[in-house]
Every structure is written in structure tokens, then in C-alpha cells.
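Key result, reporting period 2: structure in, sequence out.
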């Protein structure tokens, strides 16, 4: 890692807690520079604006999250354990940091305004990885999709939709982890092959 890369990482690491604390609109470049322990002038050498910095942070967070998701899905254990771990990682890395903020809705909206392409690409990649995992599990008879009359792609789509709903429910006091685990238990029951089949 070069000195420039280290500086960028330092700035991005410092910026996230500032955005979480103040929200996007109220966060200033001076706040981020102060948190990163650098001057505003030094910050502007790396990023021209708060928007550019936020987008870079989104790219970094999505890349890291998807690397962890891919590793979890390629790991050991049954398909549902791996998918549950992968989804938990995705949410922990990308949703939980902003979800705890009093400005969560504003931060998620800012992300969609400034980095929609990054977010949508990450969601497409996650959908593809979940579909592939479900496909392999169905072929290995680890899961049975016949009772649901659903394809692996349809089930992966429902999983993604549930993740969105669970994300929004946490603003009403629900627990992201608990609700995700409950959904995955329901799904596991629905597709676990019945004894004697």
C-alpha cells in the first residue's frame, strides 16, 4: 500500500463515523479533516468535495463487503449456513453502520443519489452469488424448491426483497440481526427436503 493509498484509507475510515454522527448534509469537509487528523487543504488534495469522498467510501465499503460475502459463500458448511453468514456480513458491512444513525434515511438517500450505480452493481452481484449458491444446493438435493414452485433466481430475488424490508424495519426498533435470522429460519423450513422423499 502506497503512502497515498494509506492517506485515502485514513480519510475514508475517519469519514464514516462523521457521516453517521452528523448526517450527510450537516457533515463538512472540515469535520472530516479534523477526524482524519489532517488539514482541510490536505483533504482537498485527495477529494474535491464531500460528494466525491462519500462516493469513494461507498465504493470501498461495497467492494470489501462483496469480497467477504464471496468468501463466506465459498466456505464450508451447508448452503443455508453460508447464505445466512453472507447476508449477515453484507448487512453488517453496508447497512448497520448507517442504520444506527439518527440520519439513517438521509444517509441511504445520499448513497442512492451519489453512488446508485455502485449500490445497484453490488446488489446484482449479490443476487448472482445467492442464485448460484441456491442452484448448487438444489442440484445436490440439499434444498427442495418444488414445494415453493420457485427457481433459485426467484428465491434469491425474494431474499433480496426481504433484506430491503428488514433494513427499513430497523428504523422502527426492530433488530437487523434478529429479523434476518428469523427470515432465514422460515426460508430454511420452507425448502428443507422432507424425510422419506
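The corresponding designed sequence is given below.
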Amino acid at each position: 500500500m502506497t503512502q497515498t493509498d494509506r492517506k485515502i484509507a485514513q480519510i475514508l475510515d475517519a469519514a464514516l463515523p462523521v457521516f453517521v454522527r452528523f448526517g450527510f448534509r450537516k457533515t463538512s469537509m472540515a469535520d472530516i479533516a479534523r477526524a482524519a487528523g489532517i488539514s482541510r487543504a490536505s483533504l482537498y488534495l485527495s477529494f474535491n468535495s464531500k460528494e466525491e469522498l462519500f462516493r469513494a467510501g461507498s465504493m470501498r465499503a461495497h467492494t470489501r463487503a462483496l469480497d467477504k460475502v464471496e468468501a463466506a459463500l465459498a466456505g464450508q458448511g451447508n448452503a443455508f449456513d453460508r447464505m445466512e453468514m453472507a447476508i449477515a456480513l453484507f448487512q453488517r458491512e453496508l447497512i448497520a453502520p448507517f442504520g444506527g444513525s439518527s440520519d439513517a434515511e438521509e444517509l441511504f438517500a445520499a448513497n442512492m443519489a451519489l453512488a446508485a450505480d455502485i449500490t445497484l452493481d453490488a446488489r446484482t452481484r449479490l443476487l448472482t452469488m445467492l442464485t448460484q449458491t441456491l442452484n448448487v444446493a438444489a442440484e445436490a438435493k440439499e434444498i427442495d424448491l418444488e414445494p415453493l414452485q420457485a427457481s433459485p433466481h426467484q428465491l434469491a430475488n425474494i431474499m433480496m426483497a426481504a433484506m430491503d424490508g428488514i433494513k427499513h424495519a430497523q428504523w422502527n426498533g426492530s433488530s437487523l440481526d434478529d429479523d434476518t435470522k428469523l427470515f432465514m429460519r422460515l426460508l430454511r423450513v420452507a425448502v428443507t427436503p422432507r424425510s422419506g422423499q
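Residues 151 and 183 are 18 Å apart (CA to CA). The longest helix spans residues 104-139. This case is discussed further under Risks and Mitigation.
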